[in-house]
Amino acid sequence: TTIKDNDVSVASVALVSNGSEGSPAATSGTFKITLSNASSTSTDVSFSLTGTATEGDDYTAISHTVTFAAGETEKIITIPVLNDAIIEGTETVIATLTGTTNPKIT
Fold this sequence. Notes:
By secondary structure, the protein is mainly beta. It contains no helices and six strands.
């Protein structure tokens, strides 16, 4: 017999903490990517970063892919804020999920 697996998983991203520039050091911002159900295989989830903050100037450039090992359901994305000593307004970073290597995860 063949057992067809019709399970699916939904990936989502949420803000965990805001970052800030400051003295003596900057504080990183964080997002959490969550899978509603674990996968039995390793899965890559990709994301984009947009907003008014500039990657490489306002925060350190990072990889835009996280890898979930089999069984994992949460990953943290750290946005390393850079102290640039420029007086400016509050800036934003928006994380948006863009794809996955597992066709059963949307």
